[in-house]
Amino acid sequence: MTLLNRVRALPKGFVWGGATAAYQVEGSTKVDGKGKTMWDDYLKKQGRFAPDPASDFYNRYSEDIHLSKEYGLNAIRVSIAWTRIFPKGYGKPNQEGVAYYHRLFKECLDNGVEPYVSLHHFDSPATLFEDGDWLNRKNIDYFVDYARFCFKEFTEVTNWFTINELISLAYSQYIQGNFPPNHHFDVTSAIQAQHNELLAHARVVNLYKSLNLKGRIGLIHVLENVYPIVATPENQHAADLQYAFMNQFLLDGTFKGEYTPETMTLINELLDINNAKLEIQDGDLDELKKASTQNDFFGLNYYQSKFVKTYHGESENHFNGTGEKGTSSFKFKGVGETVKNPDVPTTDWDWNIYPEGLYDILKRITKEYPNIKTIYITENGLGYKDKFVNENTVIDDSPRIDYIEQHIEKILQARSEGVDVQGYFVWSLQDQFSWANGYNKRYGLFYVDFETQKRYIKKSAQWFKELADTMK
Ligand code: BG6
Predict the structure, then answer these.
(1) Which of 94, 137, 191, 239 could in theory staple to 33 by disulfide, Cβ–Cβ 3.0 to 4.6 A?
(2) Ligand 1 in reach of 164 Cβ (< 6 A)
(3) 360 Cβ partners below 8 Å, 6+ apart?
(4) Whole-model pTM above 0.90?
(5) CB of 168 sitting under 6 A from ligand 1
(6) Which sites are catalytic (predicted)?
(7) Residue 325 belongs to a domain
């Protein structure tokens, strides 16, 4: 059966969405009382990229929502910028920020584009970041206050995600060093941040449920499967260690409400080798346990999987943030070395294009975590150097279409075998600012000229419309 026929057979409510994140699209970082995030001064100092005007979504959201509707999308992922609501992360709410999000949500709902809203997407308030960000447990209290405010204020929103990609934030901040505060292989901070973010998620879910609101809540993890490059027991062990650190620790905490002995054996091995430690306070696990059965849905972001071999030298890495193919490397002491699989194509940023990994992950987590209910693929897409030709030529991003098609194929295969995926959000709706790569790594269905802010259609948008429209 063709892809279109299989899509036609999907249930009516299946979600076809485009994804965004506040700091990557809104721009307007200094207007209407917005506070600074951990990125503002960092990007200025670095001098490579500016977050303004990004895709100017703060002013052009209406145009983007109309485009979404026109191109068959029935949903959009957006995030609320914590610092538009509470400029310092706490204190008195900023009414101009509140009003902006009411306008945005209204525009979405008036156009039949359902908003799926994250409370935190990598944009910690600068004030809280300086006090330790997620490593400081006070941050959790402020986050809960912010969430409570949003739940009570934005009653028009019925699909909430607490935090986007807990691992990416912790890993980029403390292992890979390409997000502020740019630590390399600070394993203690990376594992502690993960635990503290999980605790924040759990408290917010427990709060949401206690308020008896009519909506749904969950969180978003990015998952990467990890395979031994050559199947030896040592390489398999390296794959297991990396899988535990990148996926299993967080999945256990979210959906089992505990870190199982199997997981902790791997995590403790990794911590010991790196002289690192994790602190879990009395009562933390009770909160995780309570929340573990209460997630209404799970947002799964998937881009790539990894191939590894065993590695016992010192940790070192090089991050490819320029799109020069073949320049990334990653060696994690006592865990493993990430290597290239010659049979697997890669993007210019060295991300493996491996849709089978998504299928394997979907099957594995459904088996291992019965508390995972409905799954939405909340991000999936291809970073590519799209070429603008002229005003009248549709931008040819065929590699992106291939990428999306191959991944949707795998999702449908998993669905036909009982995995309850109910929606797919392409990353990203329009071209936007990429945290550590700036503006030449584009993902959008719609091309953005960052000088003029004009939107242009890409072939992937036309392809996506055909797909989504088959269900109408
Ligand atoms: C996800 C994030 O990790 O991947 C997005 O949720 C991000 O915010 C996307 O932009 C793609 O990553 P990158 O680094 O290629 O922009």
Answers:
(1) 94
(2) yes
(3) 225, 305
(4) yes
(5) yes
(6) 379 (nucleophile)
(7) no
What DSSP line would sit under 349-412, residue for residue? Answer: T--B--HHHHHHHHHHHHHH-TT--EEEEEE----B------TTS-B--HHHHHHHHHHHHHHH
CA 315–ligand 1 middle distance (angstroms): 24
Give residue 65's pLDDT: 98
pLDDT tens for each residue of 201-235: 999 999 999 999 999 999 999 999 999 999 999 99
Convert the pLDDT of each residue in 248-258 to its tens digit: 999 999 999 99
pLDDT at 1: 76
Flag whether the ipTM exceeds 0.90.
yes
Q: Which domain holds residue 438?
A: 3-223+291-304+350-469
* Number of domains forming the structure of the chain: 1
- pLDDT beyond 90 at 373: no
d(CA 269, CA 40): 37
Does residue 362 lie in a domain region?
A: yes
What atom in ligand 1 is closest to the CA of residue 383? 15
User: Residue 122 CA: which ligand 1 atom is closest?
Assistant: 8
Q: What is the separation of C-alpha 377 from the centre of its chain, rounded to a whole number of angstroms?
A: 10
Q: Which tokens belong to 140?
A: 């959790």
Please work out whether the CB of residue 21 comes within 6 Å of at least one atom of ligand 1: yes
What value does the mean pLDDT take over residues 417-433?
Answer: 98
CATH number at residue 131: 3.20.20.80
Residue position matching structure tokens 């912010």: 146
In a domain, 366, yes or no: yes
Determine if ligand 1 sits within 6 Å of the CB of residue 435: yes
Q: Whose CA is nearest to atom 12 of ligand 1?
A: 434
Q: Is 279 a catalytic residue?
A: no
Ligand 1 atom with the shortest distance to the CA of 432: 10
Q: Distance between CA 383 and CA 61 in Å, rounded?
A: 22
For residue 279, being part of any structural domain is answered with no
Q: Which candidate in 114, 165, 287, 379 is catalytic?
A: 379
